[in-house]
Amino acid sequence: MAGLELLSDQGYRVDGRRAGELRKIQARMGVFSQADGSAYIEQGNTKALAVVYGPHEIRGSRSRALPDRALVNCQYSSATFSTGERKRRPHGDRKSCEMGLQLRQTFEAAILTQLHPRSQIDIYVQVLQADGGTYAACVNAATLAVLDAGIPMRDFVCACSAGFVDGTALADLSHVEEAAGGPQLALALLPASGQIALLEMDARLHEDHLERVLEAAARAARDVHTLLDRVVRQHVREASVLLGD
Amino acid sequence: MASVSLSEAEKVYIVHGVQEDLRVDGRGCEDYRCVEVETDVVSNTSGSARVKLGHTDILVGVKAEMGTPKLEKPNEGYLEFFVDCSANATPEFEGRGGDDLGTEIANTLYRIFNNKSSVDLQALCISPREHCWVLYVDVLLLECGGNLFDAISIAVKAALFNTRIPRVRVLEDEEGSKDIELSDDPYDCIRLSVENVPCIVTLCKIGCRHVVDATLQEEACSLASVLVSVTSQGVVTCMRKVGKGSLDPESIFEMMETSKRVGKVLHASLHSILHKEESLGPKRQKVGFLG
């Protein structure tokens, strides 16, 4: 965009954040009572809902059942009013299908699927408002929803996006920064072991800078993990108070 | 529709209770569950509302875009409805599974708004035959706990109340080419009058009596329902019978009278709540899904 500086001379971004600073994150587990697990997350202006059903019997053809582990099925849907320009179809287009596959790949790495053979776990993610970092918000919401459903996981899955402008790595991109066309990296991390569940990068980036951008994204993902951990503990505390423990 | 399986004993229990005007959760036959309404939940839209009616959760977003008026109505803008039954509600809605229900609900919404008085469409016209405002009303069904039509109509009304359409001026050049200018002040906008926007009241026939605001379990016991769309003055704009069973004409007339009575009360409470929320001003605490 002409005249719009993504990073000012003093090191401030368009919305006033520093280079490595995350947007404000607020989250809540157990939003819907009829689903097995649900969660809602707000990362800045990006709002995402995740709902988990399962583990339950395979729907549709029994032949898809895997004999040694559970099948993870993800659907990504973004509301028609979520973006600035109205979207015609909430899901079924290529981008949503691709996001669904990426989410599936991320969660197959984290969920202990060996414990539930021949069954299916459904993860449905709905984006209510999209302001950049939708993949990261979806993964974070889905992690909380899977935990709310009580499905055992290897570790939290925390995701964050990162970019590169003027020699500095930026963490947690907003829509304005994503639309500017620079390189964007999406990272999903299992924080305790530091293992990467998903890594995706768009646009050109010199390989010398890759390490710095990856480091910024990993640091931001660990910060997200601290926040999500706090949300989970708060939720468990509230639930145990209600149970009278 | 999300289905729930009931045993014969549970069905008999519900039917007998309804005969005595006592439902499973203690309500009477004409009582609604507790409704929570919140507007301005999504900021990318011109107006939005979230309604929680028991376990039913609906989110409506209204986007105002500029378009050309329809040929047969050159002086009016129009509304377009789209209903998305998301897989959040039930796994059966995954992929295209929710499309049937979504189209049915969208068609019902088109029907109830298809009259001259519900929304002032001439206020949406910018210049006749050339430009008008098109309001895209998008309904997102998040959780299904029975009585979808009522909740959706309440949410649509609240979202239309919350809609703020920017004020535009048409400037004409000497050559006759027209230019549309947006007002400089972002808060300068036109609001829609929702006095005559109807709400749907669904009445389910259970045994010999009919109930308002049925839960999923009660819907599984009823053979037929009547949807009546009622305005705040008690004027009926649309009526439809749904369900597998048949109804005799006397019960249909009784149900219509009930719906007019219940509808007036519903509109009055909705109006008071919407005005109360608006009086809290722009500094009010927005809860959304976090509360």
From TrEMBL, chain A:
Its main location: cytoplasm. Residues 21-152, 155-219 form the Exoribonuclease phosphorolytic domain. It comes from Pipistrellus kuhlii. GO terms for cellular component: cytoplasmic exosome (RNase complex); nuclear exosome (RNase complex); nucleolus; nucleoplasm. Belongs to the RNase PH family. Pfam families: RNase_PH, RNase_PH_C. Keywords: Acetylation, Cytoplasm, Exosome, Nucleus, RNA-binding, rRNA processing. The keyword Nucleotide-binding does not apply. Component of the RNA exosome core complex (Exo-9), composed of EXOSC1, EXOSC2, EXOSC3, EXOSC4, EXOSC5, EXOSC6, EXOSC7, EXOSC8 and EXOSC9; within the complex interacts with EXOSC2, EXOSC7 and EXOSC9. The catalytically inactive RNA exosome core complex (Exo-9) associates with the catalytic subunit EXOSC10/RRP6. Exo-9 may associate with DIS3 to form the nucleolar exosome complex, or DIS3L to form the cytoplasmic exosome complex. GO terms for biological process: nuclear mRNA surveillance; poly(A)-dependent snoRNA 3'-end processing; rRNA catabolic process; rRNA processing; U4 snRNA 3'-end processing. This is Exosome complex component RRP41. CDD domains: RNase_PH_RRP41. It is found in: Cytoplasm; Nucleus, Nucleolus; Nucleus, Nucleoplasm. GO terms for molecular function: RNA binding. SUPFAM superfamilies: Ribonuclease PH domain 2-like (SSF55666), Ribosomal protein S5 domain 2-like (SSF54211).
TrEMBL record, chain B:
It holds the Pfam family RNase_PH. Gene3D superfamilies: GHMP Kinase, N-terminal domain (3.30.230.70). It comes from Pipistrellus kuhlii (Kuhl's pipistrelle). InterPro entries: ExoRNase_PH_dom1, ExoRNase_PH_dom2, ExoRNase_PH_dom2_sf, Exosome_comp_Rrp42_subfam, PNPase/RNase_PH_dom_sf, Ribosomal_Su5_D2-typ_SF. The lineage of its organism: Eukaryota, Metazoa, Chordata, Craniata, Vertebrata. One of its GO terms (cellular component) is cytoplasmic exosome (RNase complex). Belongs to the RNase PH family. Keywords: Acetylation, Cytoplasm, Exosome, Nucleus, RNA-binding, rRNA processing. The keyword RNA-binding applies. GO terms for molecular function: mRNA 3'-UTR AU-rich region binding. This is Exosome component 7. GO terms for biological process: exonucleolytic trimming to generate mature 3'-end of 5.8S rRNA from tricistronic rRNA transcript (SSU-rRNA, 5.8S rRNA, LSU-rRNA); nuclear mRNA surveillance; nuclear polyadenylation-dependent rRNA catabolic process; rRNA catabolic process; TRAMP-dependent tRNA surveillance pathway; U1 snRNA 3'-end processing; U4 snRNA 3'-end processing; U5 snRNA 3'-end processing. Transmembrane segments: none annotated. It is found in: Cytoplasm; Nucleus, Nucleolus. It comes from the Eukaryota. Residues 32-166, 196-261 form the Exoribonuclease phosphorolytic domain. SUPFAM superfamilies: Ribonuclease PH domain 2-like, Ribosomal protein S5 domain 2-like. Component of the RNA exosome core complex (Exo-9), composed of EXOSC1, EXOSC2, EXOSC3, EXOSC4, EXOSC5, EXOSC6, EXOSC7, EXOSC8 and EXOSC9; within the complex interacts with EXOSC2 and EXOSC4. The catalytically inactive RNA exosome core complex (Exo-9) associates with the catalytic subunit EXOSC10/RRP6. Exo-9 may associate with DIS3 to form the nucleolar exosome complex, or DIS3L to form the cytoplasmic exosome complex. Exo-9 is formed by a hexameric base ring consisting of the heterodimers EXOSC4-EXOSC9, EXOSC5-EXOSC8 and EXOSC6-EXOSC7, and a cap ring consisting of EXOSC1, EXOSC2 and EXOSC3.
